[in-house]
Design brief:
The protein is an alpha+beta fold. Helix content is 73%, strand content 8%. The two termini are 63 Å apart.
Length: 513
Amino acid sequence: MRLSLATRIFIGYAVVLITFGAVSLFSVTELHRNQIEIRLVSEGYLGLSQIALAMENLQKNQTNETKRLGEEETVGGRKWLIQLSRRYFFEGIGQKLDAGQAATLSMLEFAPQSEKQFIGELGHRFAELKGAYDDHHEVAESAWTMLEQPNPDSDLAGERIELLSRSESALASSIQRIQGMLQARILDRVREAQARERRTGVAIIALSVVAIVVGLLATGIAARALRPVATLIDGVSRIGRGDYSAQVGIRGDDEIAVLARAFDAMARSLREREAQLAEKQAELLGAERLAAVGRVSAQVAHEVRNPLSSIGLNVEMLGDQIAAARFDDPEGAREAGELLAAITAEVDRITGITDEYLALARLPSPSLRRENLVAVLESVLGFSSEELARSRVTVIREFPPAGVDAVFDENQMRQVVLNLLRNAREAMPDGGTVRLRLLTTAAGIELHISDDGPGLAPETRARLFEPFFTTKQGGTGLGLSLSRQIIQAHGGRLEAAPSIGPGTTFVLTLPRP
């Protein structure tokens, strides 16, 4: 089975990594062993050697004290020497023996397996020595008790001192044997560590040379496999300069060859797209003309607004005149009133349309203040309650009891919520339920407004916030576009949440204060 280019390069560099990893692992292992050896010698054997040396010095001093005790003729002098020995000698020896046994136990925790037998033997020697000192203490107390008397039997006292001296000599010999064992072991460990260091150095050098050779081989193989990349880069540069006729023509069946064929296909596609761009340019010019029409519409709406106000005022005055006038024909009076009502309704409708155009063209900057959003929502719902009730719409509130503070322009926020409530009501001509849910999330403060209407078709959802797009009879298509602009000016978002089945949910998100 032929391996892919990526697999071959990966295998090559994996071998390099494994080789260098083996060198590193070997070095770390040897370093760890050396650290254990150093710790074994420095913290273990040297410490025990110092303990044994201190015990040896204490024992030598005590031997000298015993010699002086046998030569001392006065009772006071003998008592003073005995008091010193009782106070300092056995207490000091006991501390050193305890320290030696504790040191051997501590060494067993980190010492290699090959050393544990020797360390155990050391611990056994210290235990035996402690038992010997316990026996020696009885011999010493027997001799000291006799020597503390004013007139001890000289022969018996000489025998007790002789027995005490032999016991001290035996203890000194035991201490010297332990010291000799430690010194010999330290020399052996040092020699072995030096030999291992030499072997480790040679092995690391040899393994490093092997790793370098393997790395060079892997680099050469990778460079040969990636040589066609230069040709591919040249082709990309030509494409970057606008030469879409570039064709690299690399043959083979590895990934670079496949990429080269894909590049050639891309170059052909770019040539085709170049022709399509010319068509899109014409469409863009049409869109710019449409934008210009929008700006002209806003200007026209501004110019129409004032005459509409005059017309509306004159119609109201004319209605008052007609209401006060007398008609010979009641039917004529009724028709005149209906005509004036129709004119008033159309003037109001056109005024509303011009207001929406002007609002979209001249959206004011929001006056941001920290307010209780729940209070504003309750106010809007109270204002819309009669209209919603007439449409048989039930409102479900899901607000936090303590309220939620947010930073917003109250008037603009009321406008957005009223627009969303109106859309929800109009989506349910036969009545239904509107659910308002307010919650605080990681994204910010979210207001979900849901209805039970038929929902949105995918093509409608895609264009929902486009200016002048509407699915309602007589709508201007500016309400949602204006609402989104208002929320974006607040630093938030207004989106139609994806839904499965009937119903529509709009999610209004404001940043946290």
